[in-house]
TrEMBL record:
Belongs to the UDP-glycosyltransferase family. Residues 1-21 have a biased composition (Low complexity). SUPFAM superfamilies: UDP-Glycosyltransferase/glycogen phosphorylase (SSF53756). GO terms for molecular function: glycosyltransferase activity. It comes from the Eukaryota. The keyword Membrane does not apply. This is Glycosyltransferase. Keywords: Glycosyltransferase, Transferase. Residues 1-27 are annotated as: Disordered.
Length: 491
C-alpha cells in the first residue's frame, strides 16, 4: 500500500539523523464521504487536486451502506495517491421505516464515531496525518477527529453557498420562524442570497416534525462550532452575493473557502471504449441536442415521465434521455443508494414513442457518460434535476439548463439558477407536455430568455476556468487551506 513508505521509521517527528537522511512522508488527509456518489465524487476530485497541485496524499473513508458495484469501481479507478477504507456496517433497524435519507446518513455517522476514531488513530501511526475533512452530513465525525488528536478539522460542503448560508442560519431560524417554512408568506431572504420561496427551501426542512429537520439544525450548530474551515464546491461568479459575505471572517462561524468547481474529469474514460451515446452524438449537428438526466439518484413519477416523453416529442428538438423506471412505488430519490433502474424503464414510455422519435432522439436506460455528453459539441442544453454536481458540470462545459428539481436542495438550486444568476429556465410546476415542450424550445433556440441564459452560461464557463488557473480565486483558496494544514503541525 502507498502508506508503507510513510510508516517506515519515525522521521516525521523531525528529530535525529533519520530525518536528515530521508525526506519526510507527504502530508496526508483523511476524508469522510457520507452516502451518495454525489458526495464521494467531489471529495475524490478534491483529493486529486490536493495530490497534483500540493503533493498531499489522501484516504477516502466510506460507509459500508454504500458499498455498491458503482462505488467500488469508482474507488478502484482513483490515482495511487488516493487510498480508501470502509467503516464497519451499522445497524439502523431501530429507525422508523421510511426514515429520511438525511436521518439515515446522520444517524449512521454518529454511531460510527468510535470506529472512525480508531481508524484515524491507526492512520496517524502510518501516515503524516495533517487534517480531517468531513462532508456535509459528517459534522459529528469531527468529534472522532478531535478524539484522535487530529488538529485540523474541516467540513467539505459539496453543494453551494446559498445552501451553506441557510444551514449556518438554521439555529437562529429554528428559534425565530414560527410554523413551517413551506407556509411562509414571503420568500426567505438570507444575507447576499436570492429570496427562496418557502416551498422551495431545502427538502429536509419542509416538515419540522420529521427527525430530518432536527438533524439539519444540529448540523448547522456543529458547522458553527467544530471545524476550523468550511471548503465549498462553488465559485464566486455563480453566487456573487453570498460569496462576498462568507469570504469575510465573522465571529461565530468558521472561515469559508469557495474552491470549486470540482467536477469529475472525463479523461479517465478511455476513448478506445466506444459508447453508443457518444457515437449517436457524433452524427448530430452542433449544439442541437438537449441532454435529459436526473442524476445518479433521481426517478420521476410515471405520469411525469409520460408527460416528459410527450413534451420532448412535441418540442421538435433532438434529445438524449437517460431513463429509469418511475418512482411511484417509492420516492423521487428511489435510486439514491444504487443508480440502477429497478424495472425495465422502456415499459413506462408512451406507446410508439421510441419509434416515432427514432430520427431525433436516443433513449438509454439507467446511465450515460454525463461528462462526455456535456463536453460534446452536439450538446446544446441540459434538462437537469439541479443536483449541484450536475450544475457545475454543465457550467464547466458551457451548457445552458432547463431546471426540473426533485429532492434535497434541488428546488432551492433551481430558484438560484433561474431567478438569481440566470443560468437556467425552470419547467413550470404543472409539468404538462405543452409547457415542457415550450421550455425546451426556448432554451435551445429562443431569442428572449433562452438567448440570455445561453449567454450567461458562456460567461460563467469562462469565470469557472479562470478561478481554477494557478493564481485564480479557487486555486488560491485551496493553497491557503493546505498551507494552514501543514504549518506548525503538532505531532
Amino acid at each position: 500500500m502507498e502508506h508503507a513508505a510513510a510508516a517506515n521509521g519515525s522521521c516525521c517527528n523531525g528529530n535525529g539523523a533519520t530525518a536528515a537522511s530521508s525526506p519526510p512522508p507527504p502530508p496526508h488527509v483523511a476524508m469522510l464521504a457520507t452516502p451518495g456518489m454525489g458526495h464521494l465524487i467531489p471529495l475524490a476530485e478534491l483529493a486529486k487536486r490536493l495530490a497534483s497541485r500540493h503533493g498531499v496524499t489522501t484516504t477516502l473513508v466510506t460507509f459500508a451502506s454504500t458499498a455498491s458495484t458503482t462505488q467500488r469501481a469508482f474507488l478502484s479507478s482513483l490515482p495511487p495517491a488516493i487510498s480508501s477504507l470502509s467503516l464497519p456496517p451499522v445497524d439502523l433497524s431501530d429507525l422508523p421505516r421510511g426514515a429520511a435519507i438525511e436521518t439515515l446518513m446522520s444517524e449512521e455517522c454518529l454511531r460510527l464515531v468510535p470506529a472512525l476514531t480508531s481508524l484515524l488513530l491507526d492512520l496517524k501511526k502510518t501516515t503524516r496525518l495533517v487534517a480531517f475533512v468531513a462532508d456535509l452530513f459528517g459534522a459529528d465525525s469531527l468529534d472522532a477527529a478531535a478524539a484522535a488528536g487530529v488538529e485540523r478539522r474541516c467540513i467539505f460542503f459539496p453543494t453551494n453557498l446559498h445552501v451553506l448560508t441557510l444551514i449556518l442560519s438554521l439555529p437562529e431560524l429554528d428559534a425565530t420562524v414560527a410554523g413551517e417554512f413551506r407556509d411562509l408568506a414571503e420568500p426567505l431572504r438570507l444575507p447576499g442570497c436570492v429570496g427562496i420561496p418557502g416551498e422551495d427551501i431545502l427538502m429536509p426542512l419542509q416538515d419540522k416534525t420529521n427527525p430530518a429537520y432536527r438533524w439539519m439544525v444540529h448540523h448547522g450548530q456543529k458547522y458553527r462550532e467544530a471545524p476550523e474551515a468550511i471548503l465549498v464546491n462553488s465559485f464566486d461568479a455563480v453566487e456573487p452575493g453570498p460569496a462576498k459575505i462568507l469570504r469575510q471572517p465573522a465571529p461565530g462561524r468558521p472561515v469559508v473557502y469557495p474552491i470549486g468547481p470540482l467536477i469529475q474529469g472525463g479523461k479517465e474514460e478511455d476513448a478506445s471504449s466506444p459508447c453508443p451515446c457518444v457515437e449517436w452524438l457524433d452524427r448530430q449537428p452542433e449544439k442541437s441536442v438537449i441532454f435529459v438526466s436526473f442524476g445518479s439518484g433521481g426517478a420521476l413519477p410515471a405520469e411525469q415521465m409520460r408527460e416528459l416523453a410527450l413534451g420532448l416529442e412535441l418540442s421538435g428538438q433532438r434529445f438524449l434521455w437517460v431513463v429509469r423506471s418511475p418512482s411511484d412505488e417509492g420516492t423521487v430519490n428511489e435510486n439514491y443508494y444504487d443508480a440502477q433502474s429497478k424495472k425495465d424503464p422502456f415499459a413506462y414510455l408512451p406507446e410508439g414513442f421510441i419509434e416515432r422519435t427514432k430520427d431525433v432522439g436516443l433513449v438509454v436506460p439507467s446511465w450515460a457518460p454525463q461528462i462526455k455528453v456535456l463536453a460534446h459539441r452536439a450538446t446544446g442544453g441540459f434538462l437537469t434535476h439541479c443536483g449541484w454536481n450536475s450544475v457545475l458540470e454543465s457550467l464547466v462545459y458551457g451548457v445552458p439548463m432547463v431546471a426540473w428539481p426533485l429532492f434535497a436542495e434541488q428546488r432551492q438550486n433551481a430558484v438560484m439558477l433561474s431567478e438569481g444568476i440566470g443560468a437556467a429556465i425552470r419547467v413550470p410546476e404543472s409539468k404538462g407536455r405543452e409547457k415542457i415542450a415550450a421550455t425546451v424550445r426556448e432554451l435551445m433556440e429562443g431569442e428572449g430568455k433562452g438567448a440570455a441564459v445561453r449567454a450567461k452560461v458562456a460567461e460563467l464557463q469562462k469565470a469557472a476556468a479562470e478561478g481554477l488557473k494557478e493564481g485564480g480565486a479557487a486555486a488560491a483558496a485551496l493553497a491557503e487551506v493546505v498551507d494552514k494544514w501543514t504549518a506548525g503541525e503538532k505531532n
